């Protein structure tokens, strides 16, 4: 079913309105405060690309505002689940994938290939004493419980070592470019050598 008129303004990707060929697959409402709640939705484009969004729904249910919008997978989303504390959002696909996202930022934390076929039902358990969760996913012929320890639920960041390596590579590239274009003289690349005149013939 289609809910293009539910959110105001309409969801956009790179400044362009969502095409009418996109259709909502799943919708979840999270518990909110006295001012309103959050709505999470799974949206599939006509080409099969799966997106998720988070919208703020004010009390009364009118004038919802899109807060976050992210592409999750090139495949279609078939199931959506939200943890009881609202920290995690999980999505299943028609290819049996399990994607676990941070609900606040929609950043992907975990991607797993759990089933050979589409995920029909998906549930996230409450957070355990160690800070982890579990995802229960159902396909056509199997049910799987996937543990999600706290250590795996960390948003991807650029480590200090990788940052230093990138800075060193950038400095090396700048130095090489400077030496190439501002180096010590010589003829320009591709320019033919200057002609040398032959000495006059002896009488």
Chain-wise SSE layout:
Layout: E1 12-13, E2 16-17, E3 23-33, E4 36-44, E5 50-58, E6 65-73, E7 77-82, E8 88-93, E9 97-102, E10 108-113, E11 121-124, E12 133-138, E13 143-148, H1 160-181
In percent, how much strand structure appears in the residues?
35-45%
Terminal CA distance reads 101 Å
Mean pLDDT: 78
Assign a percent range to the helix content: 10-25%
Order of helices and strands: EEEEEEEEEEEEEH
The global form is: elongated
Number of helical elements? 1
Give the number of DSSP strands. 13
Supply Rg.
28 Å
Note the main sheet.
4 strands, antiparallel
| Poorly predicted parts | 1-11
Structural class of the secondary elements?
A: mainly beta
Neighbour order of strands in the largest sheet: 3-4-5-6
Provide a brief overview of the structure:
By secondary structure, the protein is mainly beta. It has one helix and 13 strands, in the order E-E-E-E-E-E-E-E-E-E-E-E-E-H.
Describe this structure as you would to a colleague:
This protein has 203 residues and is mainly beta. The protein is built from one helix and 13 strands; from the N terminus they run E-E-E-E-E-E-E-E-E-E-E-E-E-H. It has one helix spanning 160-181, and strands spanning 12-13, 16-17, 23-33, 36-44, 50-58, 65-73, 77-82, 88-93, 97-102, 108-113, 121-124, 133-138, 143-148. It has a four-stranded antiparallel β-sheet, with no helix packed on it. A four-stranded antiparallel β-sheet has the order 7-8-9-10, with no helix packed on it. The protein is elongated.
């Amino acid at each position: 079913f289609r809910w293009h008129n539910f959110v105001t303004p309409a969801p956009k990707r790179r400044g362009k309105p969502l095409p009418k060929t996109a259709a909502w697959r799943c919708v979840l409402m999270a518990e909110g405060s006295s001012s309103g709640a959050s709505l999470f939705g799974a949206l599939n484009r006509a080409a099969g690309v799966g997106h998720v969004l988070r919208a703020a729904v004010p009390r009364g249910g009118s004038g919802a505002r899109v807060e976050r919008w992210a592409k999750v997978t090139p495949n279609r989303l078939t199931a959506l689940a939200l943890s009881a504390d609202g920290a995690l959002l999980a999505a299943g696909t028609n290819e049996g994938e399990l994607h676990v996202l941070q609900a606040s930022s929609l950043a992907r934390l975990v991607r797993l290939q759990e089933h050979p076929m589409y995920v029909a039902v998906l549930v996230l358990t409450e957070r355990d004493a160690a800070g982890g969760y579990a995802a229960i996913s159902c396909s056509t012929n199997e049910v799987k419980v996937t543990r999600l320890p706290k250590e795996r639920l960390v948003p991807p960041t650029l480590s200090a070592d990788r940052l230093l390596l990138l800075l060193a590579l950038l400095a090396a590239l700048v130095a090489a470019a400077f030496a190439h274009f501002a180096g010590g003289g010589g003829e320009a690349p591709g320019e033919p050598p200057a002609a040398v005149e032959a000495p006059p013939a002896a009488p």
